[in-house]
């Protein structure tokens, strides 16, 4: 099973940087060679989004019939769903992502800094040692609104954060799927993401949330402003979002995995005959 495409896209020389500004080491290209060999040697390759199915198939040359889609699941019972209440100022915005640069925190801070509404931002997920860099990023972006740095948090703490915020926004530059969006939908929190990777699948192509192009700060600002000003749209998308999240339940994931195993075993028996 393969859950991300970091190794697959590593085709660049040592000491170069990727689109996120991170240094690439020689380990990525080496892992790419190993990963390609391993995937071609397997009876089946399981991926966690339609985006990944096409991307890995194209990058590694894996036959379509060898690839299977298995979405990650969300324990819906662990999330307390409630329709979004009327917004009161300041608007509490939540960002949850360990790799905050990949998560588009810079674009989010830039967009929020231009909003006419009073907003506050909570950043959860990055390591505690990243706080100084994140506060420096806020200064560079001109973000002078209240900023709470929650650091690395447990899953239960994330669920609690969902209940104390008004909007969830992670404008990712790259994302294989985006399970945290499903968790936000399961909680009834209006979600804003991008069209990157598998995010359109978890946001049901924009029916369960809002999407903007990656790294488009102006589009993000306009969308945030629209979301804040549109209570009926928030209610509609939140209702659809919870129903959409139910398609990613644990029982459905288990049934899907069982069917994948059955198909692979049938193929092996057919080859042996």
Automatic annotation (TrEMBL):
Coiled coil: none annotated. GO terms for molecular function: glycosyltransferase activity. Residues 92-242 form the Glycosyl transferase family domain. Gene3D superfamilies: Glycogen Phosphorylase B. Residues 20-77 form the Glycosyltransferase subfamily 4-like N-terminal domain. It comes from the Bacteria. It comes from Salinibacter ruber. This is Glycosyltransferase involved in cell wall biosynthesis.
